[in-house]
Amino acid sequence: MLSELKELWKFRELLWAMVERELRIRYKNSFLGFFWSLVNPLATVLVITVVFKYFLQNNTDNYSAYVLAAYLPFIFFQICLMDSAQSVLGALPIIKKVYFPREILPLASVIANFIHFLLAFVVYFAYLFVLWAVTGFESSPFTWKIGFLPVLLLVNFALATGVAFLVSAYNVFYEDVKYVVGVALYLMFFLTPIMYFSETVYYALRARGLDWAYYAYHLNPVATLTTAYRKTLVPTGQIEVQPGPGEAPVKMFMLDFNWGLFWITVAISFLFLVVGYAVFNKLKWRFVERP
Amino acid sequence: MSEVTVDVQDVRKSFFLSHSGSASLKTMLLWWRARANIERLDVLNGVSFKVGRGECVSLVGKNGAGKSTLLALVARVYKPTSGAVVTTGRVAPLLELGAGFHPDLSGIENVIFNSMMLGLTRKQARERADEIVEFSEIGSHIDAPVRTYSSGMQARLGFAVATHVDADVLIVDEVLAVGDIAFERKCYDFIEKFKAAGGSILFVSHSMPAVERFSDRVVWLSNGNIAAHGTAAEVIPQYQSAMFQP
After folding, report:
1. DSSP E strand boundaries for chain B
2. Residue B240 phi, psi dihedral angles, 5° rounding
3. Any chain A CB within 8 A of the CB of B1?
């Protein structure tokens, strides 16, 4: 693996050129350009907020900020996988002719989407600022906890890259992979705390004596990460959850950050990265010879 | 022979063909049934030859004789099943029509990207861009998206890129036929200059006059084996008489 990394380093300029190319191509023929990548998350968050706040009458403070803080990482993960699934397959004509480290293809997809993700955070903070100015949080939207954001981004990047390696490599041989990924991501949206809180899951399962299921639920690294993003980014406010079946919802502060679950997520993410890269390297010479 | 730039050592290459068409999860799940459908195809059965500095070696042979596979092995696109291909310096394949160009990007954006793909740094690619554009004779269209180019323009641009990346070995796979006569002539002039400057060329063509003109040596491939190997004057008559025999 070390020699593969060395070779990749030799081609780093090509990697940046490919990232630049991906960003350029995406909005080449659209008038509003980057704006389009914000339309989806903002519209989705708006709809979720209306449904939960007004139809289901959830009384959480700054509910939309919680949804946005969780949905941005989720959509990054989603688009990353959908894009990288096609990254190698779409480049088959060219990789049949020219040599360069094949891992550049999925990597460029992930990095291009990561750059979008970072830009979306700028919009997130602007949104938070507006929310603060209009409704007035008790505390400033910018706390020292934001310093933890780079750590979360790094773990998230490792996870996305690892899974992208696996998906892009297997999708060359079995095009069913991208359909499986599509369905899995759709279901994952509901099994990740985006519309609700991990506290909701905690109380729901504890009331039924299924404490272990709460931990099983968080073996999904995306679930743990979105909760971590929320606890890092959303200023203190009270959320509303139902403490048990048939009980009235109560307002409470979020549970303390669960470091144990976080370290497990870190381990899973980097395991995906290492295993994904190893699998990709094993398969990459066969891409051009697929039966 | 002077310094060797391409050394093909007893190379074998086999492919696995599936008759069920594209790969899918179904073929994997039904592997015991699918296995019968997978057929091994030996494309090259132990081929050896060398190309020296300033030398042009042509590969001739029928369709399916293994010429393009051999070129792809030299370009490091495939790994040989056994044997080895050792190359010295930068190998630049001349990309066939449009491959490697993104239709939505402009000519100049594609030039920079493609020359980086062939091994130049970004700085070198930028410096070289003007020269490449001039050689391609695309002129002011260079800022228009490549999808608006004619096939001749795309071929010219592709040739211009491959010839300006300071390659030590140029791989030319039957791509010169698309330009007009003037551009073809320009390409041929370039190939001669390139050889004179010490570059090596691996050439595949079905046009015997072109092969005769450039080749120092000719390798005749037949069913994955070397049928004959020698100067153009020796090999081409043999090859042609074999081709016309029933």
Report:
1. 4-18, 38-52, 56-60, 82-87, 91-93, 169-173, 200-204, 217-222, 225-230
2. -65, -40
3. no
Nearest CA-CA distance, residue B115 and chain A, Å: 10
Residue B26, pLDDT score = 59
pLDDT band at B37 (very low <50, low <70, confident <90, very high): low
Spans of all domains in chain B: 1-13+48-89+168-246, 105-166
Determine contact: B118 vs chain A, CB below 8 A. Answer: yes
Burial class (CB in 10 A: 0-12, 13-18, 19+), B115: buried
C-alpha to C-alpha distance for A118 and B182, rounded to whole angstroms:
51
Residue B179 has a pLDDT of: 65
Best of A9, A104, A174, A178 to substitute, by most chain B Cβ atoms within 10 angstroms, is A174
How many residues are recorded in chain B?
246
ipTM comes to 0.83
Regarding the domain with residue range B1-13+48-89+168-246, which homologous superfamily does it belong to in the CATH classification?
A: P-loop containing nucleotide triphosphate hydrolases (3.40.50.300)
Residue B192: pLDDT above 90? Answer: no
Q: Give the mutation candidate from B16, B74, B77 for the A interface (greatest A CB count, under 10 A).
A: B77
**What does the pLDDT look like over A209-224, one tens digit per residue?**
888 999 999 999 999 9
Q: pLDDT of B223-245, one tens digit each?
A: 888 988 988 888 888 888 888 87
Report residue A7 as tokens: 């070779």
Structure tokens at A216: 């099983």
